[in-house]
Amino acid sequence: MNAATLKPPGAHKGIGLSLGVFSDGLACTLPRCEEGERSLRLYNRAMGEHWGAEVGLLDTGRIGFEGGSARAQGISLSVVGRMPLSASLSAYGKVGTTYSHTSSMGLPGSGLQGGSATGFGMSFGAGLSWQFSPRLSAVVELDSHDFRFANGGRDPVRAASLGLQWRY
């Protein structure tokens, strides 16, 4: 413990913003889907030396495909494990749950079901964090969130992203 701050070594809190691309299993089983749309994730993470927790917001934007479109958003809560690889590079993994809200719209005559759905699903991810200043890190991450869609099932929404995390 550091007597001046009463925090264990490696402990920190941070807020992050990641931008990336996603892949949606439901929409892209349909002909001519537009896979690779943008994703946005804002999160707050509290870490000890090796373990922590994260709460995040995810927005995939509009998923367009032949016959309709969908939108997926969620709030995630995860347990995070971190392993330092060097003084400035760390690997981390996380597992938790995502509460999602999706809405979809099928064009008339397309045969696609429209509507909205909400519910909990599993989430997990892994990434690398490069600390290039005492307060700022760059992160690269792969995430998977099980979202509920109007078709009655859960489908994975996966994202690859780059971002920045600011520690406070």
Automatic annotation (TrEMBL):
UniProt KW Cell membrane keyword: no
Per UniProt, the keywords (alphabetical) are: Signal
Cellular localisation: Cell outer membrane
Instruction: Name the principal localization, coarsely classed.
Output: membrane
The residues the entry assigns to the signal sequence are: none
Query: What is the protein's given name?
Result: Outer membrane protein beta-barrel domain-containing protein
Q: Boundaries of each Outer membrane protein beta-barrel domain copy?
A: 47-167
Gene Ontology cellular component terms for the protein in this record: cell outer membrane
UniProt-listed Pfam families: OMP_b-brl
Matching SUPFAM superfamilies: OMPA-like (SSF56925)
Recorded superkingdom: Bacteria
Transmembrane regions:
none
